[in-house]
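Researcher: We plan to redesign the surface later, but first we want a full-length starting point. Tokens attached.
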């Protein structure tokens, strides 16, 4: 039987229309990235998919820790008994969420803190898959993206969108830093690489190099 390699499933959750990703391979091990599920129905949707595919959740990763990307952290951690992993520089961002979650309409948000820290240069592995961790601050101080070189896919969080870029007006954001991250970390990848962003449709490095108005 031929190996199909990495598979990527996305869900769009919560009022911010955030993209949550499940990555899995032939071993049936999987990682959940940025679980944004904000209610029981969305939690069930994620759970049903994992169950149907007979997947084993082995890691819980955040690209960064703004509220729309972390609403389902506790649910995933508790349901599958996995620790949260983030970049250390986003710990402050994560710790701030309970202070404003009610104002954003999520009074039921439950905090969970990381047990492991992601570092650039230290790959994330599960099953037969290795993801490169690239440090891409600017939208958030500890933002990272996950690059799978063999299949040329990047789980990009809120760094680069289809013809747009992440906002930089939130605490810890910096416009020049974000542009630098895109140019040095994403635009140095092959043009064919598909970018799976935290919101909206996927795009490619090549397309954004030629048609992204923020980077021309």
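Model: Full-length starting sequence:
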């Amino acid at each position: 039987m031929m190996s199909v390699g990495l598979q990527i499933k996305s869900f769009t959750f919560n009022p911010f229309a955030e993209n949550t990703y499940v990555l899995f391979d032939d071993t049936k091990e999987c990682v959940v990235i940025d679980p944004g599920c904000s209610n029981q129905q969305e939690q069930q949707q994620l759970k049903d998919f994992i169950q149907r595919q007979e997947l084993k959740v082995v890691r819980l990763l955040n690209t960064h820790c703004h509220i729309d990307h972390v609403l389902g952290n506790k649910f995933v951690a508790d349901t599958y008994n996995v620790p949260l992993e983030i970049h250390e520089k986003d710990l402050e961002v994560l710790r701030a969420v309970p202070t404003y979650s009610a104002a954003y309409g999520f009074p039921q948000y439950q905090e969970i803190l990381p047990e492991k820290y992601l570092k650039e240069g230290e790959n994330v592995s599960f099953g037969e898959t290795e993801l490169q961790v690239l440090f891409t601050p600017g939208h958030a101080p500890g933002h990272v993206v996950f690059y799978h070189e063999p299949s040329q896919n990047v789980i990009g969080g809120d760094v680069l969108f289809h013809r747009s870029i992440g906002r930089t007006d939130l605490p810890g954001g910096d416009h020049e830093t974000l542009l630098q991250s895109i140019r040095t970390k994403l635009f140095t990848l092959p043009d064919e690489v598909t970018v799976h962003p935290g919101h909206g449709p996927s795009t490619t490095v090549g397309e954004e190099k030629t048609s992204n108005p923020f980077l021309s």
